[in-house]
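Re: your question from the hallway

Yes, I did run it. Sequences:
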Amino acid sequence: MIPDPLGALKRRTEIATWVAREVLPLEGRVRAWLNRAQVSKADADELIQEAYCRIAMLDSIDHIETPYAYFHSIVRNLLLRRLRRERVVPIEAFAEIEALHDDRPSPEQLAANKVACRTLMTIIAALPDRCRQIVQLRKIEGWSQKQIALHLGTTEKAVEKQVWLGIRLVRQAWANAEQEFDTHLATLAQRTGEGR
Amino acid sequence: MNVRETSKPDMQAAAFVARMDAGNWTLADEAELQQWLRLDIRHHGILLQTQASWIALDDPQHDMAVPEAITGRFPRMPRIGRRSLVLGGGALAASIAGAFLLTGKGTTYSTDLGEIRRVPLADGSSTAINSASQLTVILSEKRRDVHLAKGEAWFRVAKDASRPFVVEAGPVLVRAVGTAFSVRKRANGAEVIVSEGVVEGWTVGADGHRVRLTAGQRAFIGNNSAINVSDESIAAADRALAWREGFIDLAGESIEDAVSDFNRYNQRKLVLGDPALAREQVDGIFRTDDPLGFAHAVGRIFAARVEDSDPAIIRIIGPEK
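Structure:
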C-alpha cells in the first residue's frame, strides 16, 4: 500500500507551506482580478480550486520562480478555456482578459495584502470562544493538540474537533479576502500612500 | 460566526487537515486520505487550499513579509497567450530558399517542411504557401487557375470579374472573384477557410451541389462531394491562418491537434507520452518552428515533464499520478 505515510505527509505539507507563504497571501488579488473580469464568486471559487488542484499534482515546486505569476497564469488559462467553451461570450471579453494581463502588484496593493493578513488575525479573534482559545494556543503559542488537551483537561479528539471547525472558518476567511482586499485598496487610495 | 454551508468535501478536507495537525499521522490515516483523493480529482485542490490556509496562520510575521520578497523579481513569466511575440524568424527566413519552376503550363511553387512562403502573382493577387506544399499557378485571358498538388495555401485574390480565380485541390474546386481564403488539401477532400469576401466550392462531377462561404466560415469539401460547413468568427479564421506569419495560434484546441500541427512544420517531432493529456485544451501563440517552447508551456500548465534529450523527438510526459 503506502510504504511511507510520513513521507507522503511531509511532501504534502511542504507544498502546502509553500502555497501558504507564496500564493495564499495573494489569492485575494487573483480573486479581485476575476471579479474585474466579471466572474461570479462561485465560478471564481471553482477556478481557484482547480488551480490549486494543478499545483497539488506537481512533483516539485522548486522550479517555480514567480509563484504569484505562475498561479495567476494557471487561473487565467482556466478562465479563458472556460469562456471559449461557453461560446456565448462576446469576443471583447477575451480582449479585456488579455488587457488585464499585466497584473504586477503595485506597492499600494502589496500593502493591502498585508492588511488582509492583519484581517486574518481579526478573524481568529472572531472565532467562537472555545475554538478561538484552541486555535490561539495551537498557532500563536505553538502548543501541540495533545498539550492543549492536557491543559484544558479534555480529550485529544475534542481538541481535533475544534481545530476542524477553526480550519473551516479560516479557510472561508481566505476565500472572502477579496472583498477585504478591495475595501482596503479603497481605504488606502484615500489615505494616499500612508498604508505603505 | 457560523460555518456557512460548507460543502461536504470542504468539511472532509478540513477533517483530514485537523488530523494531520494532531501530529500522529498513521498508515491508516494516509490510506484513508489516498482513498478520498481518488474519489474526485478536485479533492487534491481542496485539500491543498485547506491545508495552506491552516499553515498560513503559523507565522503571520513571515507571511506579511512575503509580498516584499516577491517585488522586484517579477520578470513576467513567459506566459502562454501573450500577444507580444516577435514575428518569427526561422520560418520566414527559410522562404528565400523556396523553389519554383517555370513551365509552359504555368508556374510551380513548392515549400519544404517548416517553410512558409509569400508569393505575389502576376495578376496582382498574392498567395502564402504553408509548410510542405506545392501548387501551380496558370494565368490565362479567361481565367486564373491554381492547382494545389499538396499542402495548404492562402490566397488574396485581386478583383477581376472577367477572370474567375479557381483553386483545384484534387476533385474539389473553390472559386473566388475578389476575396481572401485558404485551401488545404487532405487525403479525402479539401478544407476551405474564408477570411474575406465570398467563395464558392464544389466537387468535380457534383456541380449542382455547391457551397457558398462567407468570411469567417470554414468548410470541408469531401472528394465524395459531401460538404460540411462550420460557422466561426472572423477572428477564428484569422487564428487558423496564423501560419502565414509563422505562428500557430491555439484557442482551446486539444493538445493532440496542436501536436500534429507542430509536426507539420518541424523535422523534430513532438510525441505525447501521456494519452490523458491528448484531450486537454491549450491556449497560446507559438512560433511554428518552436515545438520545444510549446512543450515547455504544456509542461508548465499541466505539470507535465518534457524530455528533450533526443534531437529527433521532444517527448511530453504526463504528470505523475
